[in-house]
UniProtKB/TrEMBL annotation:
<dbReference type="InterPro" id="IPR001810">
    <property type="entry name" value="F-box_dom"/>
</dbReference>
<dbReference type="InterPro" id="IPR050796">
    <property type="entry name" value="SCF_F-box_component"/>
</dbReference>
<dbReference type="Pfam" id="PF07734">
    <property type="entry name" value="FBA_1"/>
</dbReference>
<dbReference type="InterPro" id="IPR036047">
    <property type="entry name" value="F-box-like_dom_sf"/>
</dbReference>
<dbReference type="InterPro" id="IPR006527">
    <property type="entry name" value="F-box-assoc_dom_typ1"/>
</dbReference>
<dbReference type="InterPro" id="IPR017451">
    <property type="entry name" value="F-box-assoc_interact_dom"/>
</dbReference>
<feature type="domain" description="F-box">
    <location>
        <begin position="7"/>
        <end position="53"/>
    </location>
</feature>
<dbReference type="Pfam" id="PF00646">
    <property type="entry name" value="F-box"/>
</dbReference>
<protein>
    <recommendedName>
        <fullName>F-box domain-containing protein</fullName>
    </recommendedName>
</protein>
């Protein structure tokens, strides 16, 4: 059913009905309708409406593919996926010009439809739905090449925050020290933090997306069972946590497993729960992915094991999920694939050019959240 609301009759409609209609519309339409009248503008920009629209069932999950060219880096190229796909049929991709992000090399996660972008010299927040782009102040800590970042939302103070962790080598003591800083969007500034985690014999990894759950951000870490981390030693998976409101770091154990590769574990989200992906091989040397979920009591459960029918030398890696039973895979020199774990069918998602260094897929919802100063 299509409801046509004009200037002539809009004031005769109950406010609840007007709100119920507007909340189902895409961001692009709502931005235009802000000009209809002051009441509509006030409604569309209100925090309650913005939050209701973000989580409304009519606001579908969208997928953004972004690729990064090899050195010299120029930009991130972005592509929009359709809302639905058919098995074994390569979907048509949209490449809107306004989604180009010149000068930014990495997408460091997204929250509420807002993406955190960074390069060697700069950072920014970006809302692809509203086309707002906000450069952030310069890094407070000097980049060391292996920096870890996080982007999350502090629901208690209604503030978006960017976290930076730098691993600094102490050549005198032959040890590593951790430094940390946090950026607050509401204050538009960086602050130094106390990083009380011993990072010696540990290696931290950036997450595949913004792994912020219930006001806590998480990074995956591998701790060697020997003093010196080496690929021949087995590793224990653990998590480094950051309370978004109290701004305190901590550690929690991962699943009770040992892994052989430093890059075996990756953190992401699965149905809004914290998810650990453990890549390995089964008894027949076929690539496999164990999917672990953490509950509110910080306990882990393995919910799925995916045997990937792709030769091991392609080194397939899970990059996310499409719904409940589809896994998004990236593997060397091949297209991005969606693998249906029930039907065991593949769908080519994206044909990567040979010059492309890296491809990522992000699922998000369009958002009216403003990042303007």
């Amino acid at each position: 059913m299509i409801v046509k609301v004009t200037m002539k009759n809009s004031y005769n409609l109950p406010d609840d009905l007007v709100r119920g209609i507007l909340v189902t519309l895409p961001v692009k339409s709502l931005l235009r309708f802000k000009c209809v009248c002051r009441n509509w503008c006030a409604l569309i920009t209100s925090s309650s409406f913005v939050n209701e629209h973000l989580h409304h069932k009519e606001n579908p999950t969208r997928f953004l593919i972004y690729t990064r060219d090899p050195y010299p880096y120029i930009s991130i190229n972005t592509f929009m996926l359709p809302e639905k796909i058919s098995s074994s049929v390569t979907p048509m991709l949209k490449k809107p010009s306004y989604l180009q992000i010149p000068g930014m090399l990495k997408i460091g996660g997204h929250v509420d439809g807002i993406f955190f972008l960074r390069s060697e010299n700069s950072m920014a927040l970006w809302n692809p739905a509203t086309r707002e782009f906000r450069p952030l102040p310069p890094y407070l800590l000097k980049l060391c090449g292996g920096d870890k970042f996080g982007f999350g939302f502090d629901s208690l103070s209604c503030d978006y925050k960017v976290m930076q962790i730098v691993e600094e080598h102490n050549y005198v003591k032959e040890s590593w020290n951790g430094l940390a800083a946090v950026y607050s969007l509401s204050n538009d500034c960086w602050r130094n933090l106390t990083f009380n985690i011993d990072i010696n014999s540990k290696i931290l990894f950036n997450s595949l997306c913004s792994t912020c759950v219930n006001g806590v951000y998480y990074w995956c870490a591998a701790k060697a069972t020997e003093v010196i981390p080496h690929d021949t030693y087995e590793k224990v998976i653990l998590l480094v946590s950051f309370d978004m409101h109290n701004e305190v770091f901590g550690e929690i154990p991962g699943p009770d497993i040992l892994v052989k590769s430093l890059h075996a574990g990756s953190l992401t989200l699965y149905n809004e729960s914290l998810c650990l992906l453990v890549h390995g091989y089964d008894d027949q040397e076929r690539p496999s992915i164990d999917i672990w979920l953490m509950n509110d009591e910080k306990l882990w459960t393995k919910v799925m094991n995916v045997i990937v029918p792709i030769p091991a030398y392609y080194d397939p890696r899970c990059r996310g999920f499409w719904g409940h039973d589809k896994v998004i895979l990236e593997h060397k020199g091949q297209p991005i694939l969606i693998y249906d774990t029930k039907s065991h069918e593949f769908t080519n998602l994206f044909h990567r050019e040979e010059k492309t260094k890296r491809t990522r897929v992000s699922s998000y919802r369009e958002s009216l959240v403003s990042i303007k100063k």
